[in-house]
C-alpha cells in the first residue's frame, strides 16, 4: 500500500511537470515560388519575447517552446504564417509572396522599408496609380497625384517640367528635387541644357515601376547636400519569375486650341482707318493669321516592347526597347527618342549575394524651333507670308526702299525664321549602375552594399540659318551669309556608394542600422565654334573644374512591438563649390511613428483599420548654384573685340570675376507632423501633414556695392525665409465588387511662403520684363512672398476704365515714384489640388485626372508690352492684342508697371480623360489586349485673359510654347 501511494504521488507530481515541459524546434524556411531558402526570417513565439531568425541556409532553431504555443514566421514581402506547436521536433515552412505587401515596399535613401513602417513624409506611386494619356516624360505619370508636389510642364515636345516639392526651398539656388534612378542620383538639369529637353526626357516612362517621393527633411536628410528640395526615387521594372511580354503603342494628334487674341486683318484695317486714317494706304492687301501660320497639327507615336522572365530559372532578366516620335505645335519642332534597357537581378549563394544590374542606352534627337510667338503676335496681318520678289527665300520681309535689303530694327517674318533655321541636337546618354548586396555568411545580421553608377551624356548640336535668311550675319548690309555654329558637349557623372546594413530582432525590438560613404563627381567639357560665317568670331572651349560631393552617413531604425518606430540619421557632406573653411556641413534628422491602431483600445475596431502618428525633424543642405567656384580667384580671357594695343602689339586682357570666399551652405530646417488614417479595412485611406521649413543663409544673386567686388552682383548668403503648409490626401474605393470598381482620390496642399530676413533688410528687385529697358516686375522683400509682384496701383475713372499714367499716391507725398509701388500679388498658388477617378465595369474602364491652382496671380507681359497705340506704328505697322480697345492706352512708359496687368491665375484643368476596353481571353486566356482612347488637356476653366494661366517663369507671361489639346488612341498587349 505504501508503494502504491508513493507511485501515485510521483505520477501526480509528473503531470504538472510534463504540462510545463519545454522543447526545442528546428526547421527550414523556403520560398514557395522558387524553393530557395530564405535567410533572415523573423521567428517568434506569439505574445512573448522568445524568438530567432533563420540563417543563410534558411535553417532555424528556437528553444523553450511549450505545447500549444503559436510560432509566427514573418518576412518582408511574404505572407506571415502561424504554426501551433504540438510536440513536433521539426517544422518546415514555405512562405508565399504577398503581392499587396510587395507593392507597399517603399524605397528610401540607401534602403527600403514597408510603407506602414515609415516615420517621415514619403509618398509611393506605383504603376497601378500612374496617370494615363500622352505621358512622354516620367514626371507626368504622377502629376496631380501627390499632395505637396506640383508639376508644371510647358507645351513643347517632351518639354521640361518645373517640379516643386512643398514649394521649393531657395530664392536663386536650385529648387529642383533630386532625381534618383535605381540608386543613381542623376545629373543636375542645367548640365543637359545644351541638348536634352530636360533631365528626364531621355528616360522612358514605360520602364518605370514606381516613384517614392521623399517630401520632408526627416526622410530626405539622408541625402544631405542634395535633399533640400525633396527627393524623387525612381524604381525601374525588373525581371519576373515567369515569361512576360508587353507591347504598348499609342498615337496622338494635337492642335493649338487657343491663341493670343489679336486683331484679324480686317479688324486691323478698320482699327487703322479709325485711328491712323492717313496711313491706311501703307497697309497690305493680305489676310494673314500669323499665329496660325507658325502652328500645325502635331502628330506623335510611342511604341514600347519589353520581355521579362528568368533565364534558366535562375537569372531574372528584363529587356526593353522604346521609340517615341513627337512633333511640336510650333512648326519644325520635334522630339525623337530611342531607349534600350537591360535589367539583370541574379541571387547567388542561397540569396546571400544579391546583384542588380541596370543599364540604359538612350538616344535623343531634338529639333529646336526659335521662339517666334512674339513676332507672330505683332506682325502686320495685312502682309503676305510669301513675296515672289523677295531675295530672302521668297518670304515677305520689310526691305529698305533705297537698298532693297532687309530693313533694320523691324519685325522679321516669323514663319521664315522657323523654316530657315535648323537647330538639331543629337544626344547619346548611357546611365546605369551595378549594386552588390552581400549578406555575410559568418554574420547574417550584417550586409555589405556596394553601388557603382555612371551617367554619361554626349551631345552634338548644330545650328544653321539659311544664307537667304534676313536674320543672317550682315543681312541688312546685303550679305547673304546666314549663320552656322556647332557645339560638342560631354557631361560625366560618377558615383560610388559603399555602406553596411545591420538588422537584428531582439524579442519585440527590431533594429536596423545603416552606415556608409558616398562619392560623386561631375565633369563637363564643352566646345563651341560660335558663328562660323562671322569672320570676327573665334571658337571657345570650356572645361569646368570637377565638381565633387563627398558624404559620410549613418541611420538607425528602431521598431518596438510593431507599434512604436524611431528613426535617426546624420550625414556629413563636403562640396567642392565652397572654400575649405565652409566646405563641410552636418545634416541630422529624427522622426517618430506611433501605430495607434495597434493599441489595445483600437486593435479590434471594425471601423478604424489604420491610424498612425508621425513626427519628423531634419536639416538638409543646398549648394547647387550656377557659380560653382565663386570662392576662387578667377579670370576670364577677353574676346578679340576687347584688346589693347601696346607698342603696336595686340594684347589680350583678362578680366577678374566675382569672388566670395565666405560663401557657405544654405541650410533648410524642417518640422513635420503627420497622421495616416484608414477606415473599414482601408477602403477609405489617406494622410494629413503639417509642415514648416526654415531656409537659412539663403544663396541668392544679390547686389554688391560699387568697387566692393569685380561685379555688381553675385551669389551670397543673404537671409532667411519660411515655408509653412498643410497637406491632405484621401483615397476611397466607393464601389468594390467583382464586376464594378470605382476609386476616387483627392489631394490638396496649402502653402504659405514668406521672406523673414534679407541682408541689411534691403529689397531685391528681380525678373526683367519686355516693353522697356531695365524694368523689373517682381521683388524679394522682408515679410512678403518670394517673387512678389511690385507695381503701381492703377486709378480708374467713374466708368471703371483705367486712366493712363494715373496711379495712387500710396505714401501721400504728392509725388508718384517708385516709393508708391506696392506688393500686388505673387506667382505661386496658395492652394494646389488634384482629383482622380477610375471606374472599371467588367472589361470596360474609364478614368480622368484633374488639377487646380487657387490664389496665385500672373503678370500679362504680352498685353502690357504690346497693347499701346504708340506701338502700332514704329517704322512699320505692328499688330496688337485686342485688349487695347478696353484700355485705349497711348504710349506711357510706366504703364507696364501697372497692377492692371496683374490678373487672377487660378484655374481648373482637365488633364486627361481615358476610356478603354480589355479583351482577356486571347490565346486561351494567357494574354490580354486593351484598346483605349483619350483626350489630353481637355479643358481649362480660368479668368485669365491670356493664353494659359499655368506658366513657369514665376508667373510672368511673356509668350509661351502653348499646350495643345490631344486626341489619343492606344493599345496594350500583355502575355
Structure description:
- With 975 residues, the protein is mainly β.
- It has ten helices and 57 strands.
- It has a 22-stranded antiparallel beta barrel. Strands 10-15-16-13-14 form a five-stranded mixed sheet.
- The radius of gyration is 33 Å and the shape is globular.
- The relative contact order is 0.11.
Which key features would you list for this structure?
mainly beta; 22-stranded antiparallel beta barrel; 5-stranded mixed beta sheet; 10 helices; 57 strands; 49% strand; single chain; 975 residues; 7% helix; disordered N terminus
Provide a quick synopsis of the model:
Helix content is 7%, strand content 49%.
Question: What's the SSE blueprint?
Answer:
Layout: H1 2-19, E1 23-31, E2 42-45, E3 51-53, E4 59-65, E5 70-74, E6 81-84, E7 93-95, H2 99-103, E8 105-108, E9 111-114, E10 122-126, E11 149-153, E12 161-165, E13 178-181, E14 184-185, E15 208-214, H3 217-220, E16 231-236, E17 244-255, H4 265-275, H5 290-294, E18 298-311, E19 315-327, E20 334-344, E21 347-348, E22 353-367, H6 373-378, H7 414-419, E23 421-439, E24 446-465, E25 483-506, E26 509-528, E27 540-543, E28 547-560, E29 564-575, E30 584-595, H8 600-603, E31 608-622, E32 635-637, E33 643-646, E34 649-652, E35 654-656, E36 666-679, E37 684-696, E38 699-703, E39 713-717, E40 720-736, E41 740-757, E42 764-768, E43 776-780, E44 788-791, E45 794-796, E46 802-807, E47 822-826, E48 831-841, E49 844-854, E50 857-860, H9 861-866, E51 873-874, E52 876-877, H10 884-887, E53 902-904, E54 907-922, E55 927-942, E56 956-957, E57 965-974
Parallel strand pairs: 1-7, 13-16, 50-56
Antiparallel strand pairs: 1-4, 2-3, 2-5, 5-6, 8-9, 10-15, 11-12, 13-14, 15-16, 17-18, 17-57, 18-19, 19-20, 20-22, 21-22, 22-23, 23-24, 24-25, 25-26, 26-27, 26-28, 28-29, 29-30, 30-31, 31-36, 32-35, 33-34, 36-37, 37-40, 38-39, 40-41, 41-48, 42-43, 43-44, 44-47, 45-46, 48-49, 49-54, 50-53, 51-52, ...
Amino acid at each position: 500500500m505504501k508503494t502504491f501511494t508513493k507511485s501515485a504521488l510521483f505520477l501526480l507530481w509528473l503531470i504538472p511537470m510534463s504540462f510545463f515541459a519545454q522543447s526545442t524546434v528546428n526547421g527550414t524556411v523556403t520560398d514557395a515560388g522558387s524553393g530557395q531558402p530564405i535567410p533572415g526570417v523573423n521567428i517568434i513565439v506569439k505574445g512573448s519575447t522568445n524568438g530567432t531568425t533563420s540563417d543563410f541556409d534558411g535553417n532555424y532553431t528556437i528553444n523553450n517552446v511549450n505545447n500549444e504555443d503559436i510560432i509566427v514566421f514573418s518576412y518582408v514581402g511574404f505572407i506571415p504564417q502561424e504554426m501551433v506547436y504540438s510536440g513536433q521536433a521539426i517544422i518546415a515552412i514555405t512562405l508565399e509572396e504577398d503581392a499587396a505587401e510587395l507593392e507597399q515596399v517603399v524605397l528610401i535613401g540607401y534602403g527600403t522599408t514597408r510603407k506602414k513602417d515609415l516615420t517621415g513624409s514619403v509618398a509611393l506611386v506605383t504603376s497601378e496609380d500612374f496617370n494615363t494619356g500622352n505621358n512622354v516624360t516620367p514626371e507626368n505619370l504622377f502629376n496631380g497625384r501627390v499632395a505637396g508636389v506640383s508639376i508644371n510642364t510647358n507645351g513643347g515636345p517632351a518639354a521640361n517640367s518645373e517640379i516643386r516639392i512643398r514649394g521649393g526651398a531657395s530664392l536663386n539656388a536650385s529648387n529642383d528635387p533630386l532625381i534618383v534612378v535605381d540608386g543613381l542620383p542623376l545629373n543636375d538639369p542645367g548640365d543637359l541644357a545644351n541638348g536634352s529637353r530636360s533631365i528626364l526626357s531621355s528616360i522612358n516612362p514605360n520602364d518605370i515601376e514606381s516613384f517614392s517621393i521623399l517630401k520632408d527633411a526627416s526622410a530626405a536628410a539622408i541625402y544631405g547636400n542634395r535633399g533640400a528640395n525633396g527627393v524623387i526615387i525612381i524604381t525601374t521594372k525588373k525581371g519576373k519569375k515567369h515569361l512576360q511580354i508587353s507591347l504598348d503603342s499609342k498615337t496622338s494628334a494635337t492642335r493649338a486650341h487657343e491663341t493670343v487674341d489679336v486683331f484679324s486683318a480686317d479688324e486691323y484695317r478698320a482699327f487703322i482707318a479709325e485711328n491712323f486714317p492717313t496711313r491706311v494706304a501703307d497697309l497690305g492687301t493680305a489676310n494673314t493669321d500669323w499665329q496660325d501660320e507658325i502652328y500645325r497639327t502635331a502628330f506623335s507615336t510611342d511604341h514600347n516592347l519589353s520581355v521579362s522572365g528568368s533565364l534558366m530559372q535562375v537569372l531574372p532578366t528584363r529587356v526593353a526597347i522604346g521609340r517615341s516620335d513627337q512633333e511640336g505645335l510650333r512648326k519644325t519642332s520635334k522630339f525623337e527618342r530611342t531607349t534600350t534597357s537591360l535589367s539583370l537581378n541574379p541571387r547567388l549563394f542561397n540569396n546571400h549575394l544579391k546583384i542588380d544590374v541596370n543599364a540604359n542606352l538612350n538616344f535623343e534627337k531634338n529639333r529646336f524651333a526659335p521662339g517666334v510667338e512674339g513676332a507672330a503676335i505683332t506682325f502686320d496681318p495685312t502682309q503676305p507670308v510669301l513675296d515672289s520678289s523677295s531675295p530672302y527665300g521668297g518670304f515677305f520681309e520689310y526691305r529698305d526702299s533705297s537698298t532693297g535689303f532687309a530693313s533694320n530694327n523691324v519685325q522679321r517674318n516669323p514663319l521664315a525664321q522657323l523654316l530657315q533655321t535648323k537647330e538639331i541636337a543629337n544626344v547619346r546618354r548611357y546611365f546605369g549602375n551595378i549594386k552588390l548586396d552581400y549578406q555575410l555568411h559568418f554574420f547574417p545580421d550584417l550586409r555589405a552594399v556596394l553601388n557603382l553608377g555612371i551617367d554619361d551624356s554626349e551631345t552634338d548640336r548644330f545650328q544653321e540659318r539659311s544664307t537667304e535668311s534676313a536674320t543672317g550675319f550682315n543681312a541688312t548690309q546685303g550679305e547673304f551669309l546666314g549663320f552656322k555654329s556647332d557645339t560638342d558637349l560631354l557631361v560625366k557623372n560618377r558615383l560610388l556608394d559603399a555602406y553596411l546594413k545591420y538588422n537584428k530582432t531582439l524579442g519585440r525590438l527590431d533594429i536596423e542600422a545603416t552606415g556608409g560613404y558616398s562619392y560623386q563627381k561631375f565633369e563637363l567639357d564643352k566646345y563651341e565654334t560660335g558663328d562660323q560665317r562671322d569672320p570676327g568670331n573665334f571658337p571657345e572651349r570650356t572645361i569646368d573644374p570637377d565638381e565633387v560631393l563627398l558624404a559620410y552617413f549613418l541611420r538607425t531604425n528602431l521598431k518596438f512591438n510593431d507599434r512604436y518606430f524611431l528613426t535617426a540619421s546624420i550625414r556629413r557632406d563636403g562640396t567642392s563649390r565652397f572654400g575649405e573653411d565652409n566646405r563641410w556641413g552636418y545634416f541630422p534628422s529624427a522622426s517618430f511613428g506611433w501605430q495607434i491602431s495597434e493599441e489595445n483600445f483600437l486593435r479590434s475596431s471594425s471601423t478604424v483599420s489604420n491610424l498612425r502618428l508621425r513626427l519628423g525633424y531634419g536639416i538638409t543642405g543646398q549648394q547647387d548654384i550656377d557659380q560653382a567656384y565663386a570662392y576662387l580667384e578667377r579670370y576670364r580671357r577677353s574676346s578679340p573685340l576687347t584688346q589693347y594695343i601696346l607698342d603696336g602689339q595686340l594684347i589680350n586682357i583678362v578680366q577678374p570675376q566675382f569672388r566670395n570666399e565666405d560663401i557657405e551652405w544654405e541650410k533648410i530646417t524642417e518640422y513635420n507632423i503627420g497622421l495616416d488614417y484608414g477606415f473599414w479595412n482601408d477602403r477609405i485611406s489617406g494622410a494629413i501633414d503639417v509642415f514648416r521649413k526654415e531656409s537659412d543663409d539663403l544663396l541668392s544673386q544679390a547686389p554688391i556695392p560699387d568697387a566692393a567686388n569685380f561685379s555688381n552682383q553675385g551669389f551670397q548668403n543673404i537671409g532667411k525665409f519660411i515655408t509653412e503648409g498643410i497637406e491632405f490626401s484621401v483615397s476611397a474605393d466607393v464601389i468594390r465588387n467583382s464586376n464594378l470598381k470605382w476609386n476616387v482620390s483627392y489631394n490638396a496642399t496649402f502653402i504659405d511662403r514668406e521672406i523673414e530676413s534679407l541682408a541689411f533688410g534691403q529689397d531685391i528687385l528681380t525678373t526683367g520684363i519686355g516693353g522697356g529697358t531695365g524694368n523689373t516686375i517682381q521683388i524679394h522683400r522682408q515679410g512678403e512672398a518670394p517673387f512678389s509682384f511690385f507695381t503701381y496701383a492703377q486709378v480708374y475713372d467713374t466708368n471703371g476704365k483705367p486712366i493712363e499714367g494715373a496711379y495712387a499716391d500710396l505714401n501721400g507725398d504728392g509725388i508718384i515714384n517708385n516709393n508708391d509701388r506696392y506688393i500686388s500679388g505673387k506667382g505661386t498658388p496658395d492652394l494646389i489640388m488634384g482629383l482622380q477617378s477610375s471606374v472599371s465595369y467588367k472589361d470596360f474602364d474609364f478614368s480622368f485626372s484633374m488639377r487646380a491652382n487657387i490664389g496665385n496671380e500672373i503678370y500679362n507681359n504680352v498685353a502690357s508690352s504690346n497693347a499701346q497705340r504708340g506701338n502700332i506704328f514704329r517704322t512699320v505697322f505692328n499688330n496688337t492684342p485686342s485688349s487695347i480697345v478696353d484700355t485705349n492706352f497711348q504710349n506711357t512708359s510706366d504703364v507696364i508697371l501697372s497692377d492692371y496687368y496683374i490678373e487672377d491665375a487660378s484655374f481648373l484643368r482637365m488633364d486627361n480623360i481615358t476610356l478603354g476596353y480589355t479583351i482577356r481571353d486571347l490565346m486561351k486566356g494567357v494574354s490580354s489586349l486593351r484598346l483605349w482612347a483619350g483626350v489630353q488637356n481637355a479643358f481649362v476653366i480660368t479668368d485669365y485673359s491670356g493664353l494659359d494661366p499655368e506658366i513657369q517663369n514665376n508667373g510672368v507671361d511673356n509668350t509661351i510654347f502653348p499646350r495643345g489639346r490631344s486626341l489619343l488612341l492606344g493599345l496594350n498587349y500583355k502575355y
